[in-house]
Amino acid sequence: MMEEQQQMEQELQNIIGSISPLDEAAMEKARARMDILTKPQGSLGRMEDLAVQLAGINGDFFPVGARKRVVVMAADHGVTEEGISAYPSEVTAQMVANFTGGGAAINVFGRQGEVEVEVVDVGVKVDNNLPGVKRVRVKAGSDNFRRRPAMNRLETLKALMAGIECAREAAGDGIKVLATGEMGIGNTTASSAVMAALSGYETSLVVGRGTGLDDEKLLHKQKVVSEALEMHKPDPKDPIGVLSLVGGLELAALAGLIIGASTHRIPVVIDGFISSTAALAAVKMCPNARYYLVPSHLSAESGHALLMDYLDLQPYIHMGMRLGEGTGAVLAMHLLEAAARVTLEMATFEDARVSNKDEAGEDEKEVGSETKGAEQ
Amino acid sequence: MMEEQQQMEQELQNIIGSISPLDEAAMEKARARMDILTKPQGSLGRMEDLAVQLAGINGDFFPVGARKRVVVMAADHGVTEEGISAYPSEVTAQMVANFTGGGAAINVFGRQGEVEVEVVDVGVKVDNNLPGVKRVRVKAGSDNFRRRPAMNRLETLKALMAGIECAREAAGDGIKVLATGEMGIGNTTASSAVMAALSGYETSLVVGRGTGLDDEKLLHKQKVVSEALEMHKPDPKDPIGVLSLVGGLELAALAGLIIGASTHRIPVVIDGFISSTAALAAVKMCPNARYYLVPSHLSAESGHALLMDYLDLQPYIHMGMRLGEGTGAVLAMHLLEAAARVTLEMATFEDARVSNKDEAGEDEKEVGSETKGAEQ
Predict the structure, then answer these.
(1) Interface of A with B in 82-111 (CB under 8 A)
(2) What distance in Å separates the CA atoms of residue B221 and residue B212, rounded to the nearest whole number?
(3) What letter does residue A75 receive in the DSSP assignment?
């Protein structure tokens, strides 16, 4: 087993080492293209930055109508024993069944946006062995990290590699955009612990109300997280260790998915608090993975804004959502697609015979810039 | 002419008087539906509020795949003579041609979101009489409001009625969602003046850089707006008068479109700074029109955040865009469609056999609420 673990660590390090920064030439080309399109320079704001990032990931202008997939990692959490969530783990399995039936919010948004929904069981307590669920069950839920490590290091590595494998398969299927999704009762608690351990932020800043805990239960949840961190003293320089001690199977699998997406130069749209915690772990393991992250929405879960700041990501959608499943990420894929289309489908000043400052005489020099504003 | 004006004023008042608040019973029904869907109560945040508003507008659950249209009102502004925009009015006509050619950002987003783009010339300086442009040219651009009224009252009424007529035609065509768009060099200046006059905010707070004026030109633009307001002393209680004195043809037409949409119980998605100024004018004329407004994005134009607060609208998309044309509104239609689909396509707890607190025993009472959180 020790040998298996060492092999996996080595394999993971090789994969991480293969991830490179973005293609500067492609980004420069996209930036130049943005400036000759019939709109004010910079007037599409951060959508222009997104278009440039996508080109840098893809090595050329990002294609229109790229095939998209959200990977919903599902797992249970032993820490629910501590009453940090008022509700039992069984709902994780029930919601997995709902995903396969097409009735959850992620299914609705997926159908609307033509985004495939892949559901992965990396450790749901109840094994329903449902058709349509990819089973890579590392174990039947993590252990209660208030009492003992959530997982051992080998289990964490297996979950990470499962996520990397999902990205590899996606690349093989021709998927060009990935998104992170999750389902797991108790996973805001694990995410808060991982975020605190990796970022150094106070527990009180990173533990939120989840589905709506009252003040008393919120304090209890904070206490559980604080005590667990006190007990395990996770080393912030060892993200795999942090995930093992106070994380969860779906968190590790999502971190793997993000690393895998980066390996295959696939942009990965990050959903809310749990997904962003996985992104934090991925970036701590592999700083270059940060280049492949696309933000989506700002969750109502209290630690999310802080986490986005920490990752220097600015969410695009502000709807006060806190559902998880990947719902915010899938909605934001519409904006990503828009960025790709702008790059390839908008007319240039020359195409549309709109005067451009570069080709005009002194007096007309600013005509092109004038189109800088319908809002002029 | 005086008689024509009186008739139009009367007709407008009749239309305004016919606009009613939302259907409370339909809203209650939508709210109840939100609470039995397989998601935490309230976890879709403001998307749930949007779904409830849409039901209230429609008188029942809002349909999936409703036909959508953005109306792009184009006009020129005499105040460009004052050098408030570094660039000439001719670009308005050039961009109208670009719209008909399908090469502008609004065309790209319209194709992506299956939103029809209607281009209306309500007063572009150059009359190119292009196929595909609806011509209701009230006059060839407004007058320079730094020197004289932008329009006379009859012209303003005609532009308002043209907008109302566009909404009536849309309703006849089976359009179920409208969005506001515009093109008009100089129209941030007119919008700032209208916003200041109607809201009472200081000029310095409502005048922005438009396409990116430097400090000196920004101060000049503020001075032009301040002097115009000082000269005309528009009465904030007379929005038609405000539009006549310091507004613009497309602003009046958009205010009309919003009033018309409200008459036909069609939700109208409001784009950026200029569209929001038109919405302010519409709401001042007709407070009930407020119920039909759906926000879209937060523009980078400095007065927009203040204007959204004033209207008590919270924009969904934060991308720092400032392009106008209706681009933010058309992107936000994806979120509106998502709200409609959630209402009609998500499984209920009963459908999906996910335990719900109402049907469970004491111990399981909270199971349903547990599904309140993938982010639990």
Answers:
(1) 85-88, 90-91, 94-95, 97-98, 101-105, 107-109, 111
(2) 12
(3) E
Rounded Cα gap, residues B253 and B245, in angstroms: 15
Contact B46 A374 (CB under 8 A): no
- Residue in A closest to B364 by C-alpha: A87
What are the pLDDT digits (tens) for A151-188? 999 999 999 999 999 999 999 999 999 999 999 999 99
Q: Are residues A121 and A257 in the same domain?
A: yes
Per-residue tokens: A235: 């080393």
Phi, psi of A362 (to 5 degrees): -55, -50
ipTM metric: 0.94
Provide the domain count of chain A.
2
B19 φ, ψ (degrees, to nearest 5): -85, 125
Per-residue model confidence as pLDDT tens digits over A258-280: 999 999 999 999 999 999 999 99
Residues A167 and A22 in one domain: no
Cβ-proximal residues to B36 (8 Å cutoff; 6+ apart), any chain: B348, B349, B350, B356
Q: Are residues B252 and B180 in the same domain?
A: yes
Identify the domain containing residue B241 by its residue range: 68-335
Query: Which residues from B are below 8 Å from A105, CB to CB?
Result: 37-39, 44, 342, 346
Q: Are residues B313 and B167 in the same domain?
A: yes
* Exposed / middle / buried, residue A295 (Cβ in 10 Å: 0-12, 13-18, 19+): buried
Residue B114 a catalytic site member: no
> Residue B292 and residue B12: Cα distance in Å, rounded?
18
Element (H, E) at A334: helix A327-345
Kindly state whether residues B324 and B349 are assigned to the same domain. no
Residue A275 CB burial class (10 angstroms; 0-12, 13-18, ≥19): buried
